[in-house]
Design brief:
Elements: E1 2-6, H1 15-26, H2 31-48, H3 54-68, H4 80-84, H5 94-103, E2 107-112, H6 116-123, E3 132-135, H7 136-139, H8 147-156, E4 160-165, H9 168-177, E5 181-185, E6 201-202, H10 208-215
Parallel strand pairs: 1-2, 1-4, 2-3, 4-5, 5-6
Length: 216
């Protein structure tokens, strides 16, 4: 019962590419600006409405990003992120590294701030199977709340558990708070406010099996 749990978007799926290119569809030339504005607002929307379905979080956050950046948003355009999300690209290092984990006997799970219907579309693009998924819809909250982690623990009772994620705020901080083993995938070269929260850091998934087993 050795488990590795993953955040999905940003860790396994290129979330920034997905948001930026989708924004380009409705506002050509504005994708980069809207991506950064979106990133500033999403966690605020989630904190204000922790039971809001994720497709509505996507739409409301995009509306706020467009308002901040003075970009006109058509009446039906706010749904673009939920529509394109199942097609956002998987990072190229995912297949080999997750396959190595499975072959070494680790079970894989997703702890995602997504809904069941949206993550179902993404799972069809992930190159390896996952034994479990906990969504925000299941947990009734969005990370960095503890609900995803507590629900996973009570449902699967892992004997050994390592959490792997890109988001310092959404994943590393609650994993540290709960005393979980953890590996930070720092894809954007960020500087943590507290380095003790991320004792093992690497820039991508390459060599993840060794990192997980060393952490465990």
């Amino acid at each position: 019962m050795r488990w590795v749990t993953f955040d999905c978007f940003g860790t396994l799926v290129d979330w920034r590419h997905g948001i930026g290119t989708s924004a380009e569809l409705i506002a050509p030339g504005q994708g980069a600006r809207l991506l950064e504005a979106y990133n500033r607002h999403e966690h605020l929307v989630q904190a204000e409405s922790p039971t809001m379905r994720y497709r509505h979080v996507l739409a409301e956050t995009l509306r706020r990003a467009c308002e901040e950046e003075k970009v006109d948003l058509g009446a039906d355009d706010a749904d673009v992120l939920a529509t394109t999300l199942p097609y956002w690209p998987v990072f190229p290092d995912v297949r080999a590294e997750l396959t190595a984990l499975r072959e070494a006997g680790w079970r894989l799970a997703l702890l995602t701030n997504c809904d069941r219907d949206l993550i179902a579309g993404t799972r069809r693009r992930l190159p390896v199977p996952f034994e479990a998924v906990v969504t925000a819809e299941d947990a009734g909250a969005y990370k960095p709340a503890d609900a995803h982690f507590e629900l996973f623990r009570s449902s699967y009772e892992p004997e050994v558990w390592v959490h792997v994620a890109q988001s310092y705020f959404h994943d590393m901080e609650p994993a540290h708070r709960l005393g979980l083993r953890r590996v930070w995938i720092n894809r954007h070269g960020l500087r943590p406010s507290d380095p003790s929260i991320v004792p093992h850091t690497q820039p991508d998934l390459r060599g993840l099996l060794a990192a997980v087993e060393a952490t465990a």
